[in-house]
Amino acid sequence: MTRPLDIYFICGAGLGSSLACQMEAEEVLAEAGVRANLGHEAISGIPGVRADIIVSAENFKPTIEKYELDPGISFVFLKNIVDKTEIAAKLLPVVQHKETQA
Prior knowledge:
Layout: E1 5-11, H1 17-31, E2 36-42, E3 53-57, H2 61-66, E4 74-78, H3 84-101
């Protein structure tokens, strides 16, 4: 059995939108039968995040790309962070890819 993936949700302060996105993604992942460890963090804390996947809003992409992060981390950027359809469409393929690499 493989270990659960570590997925972090990133926003400006690490409290509001990242938690909202995490809650929606938790439902999407549960419906898909995916086990994962979920967390959320402020963008300023991203250098210390150890994750398999980082999920954030598209507007944070330029800032996140400025950090030198582990090249093994996959990124998912969303237009609407609480849209379960978009979350499923963008996150689940990345999860499946990561699971096949394990």
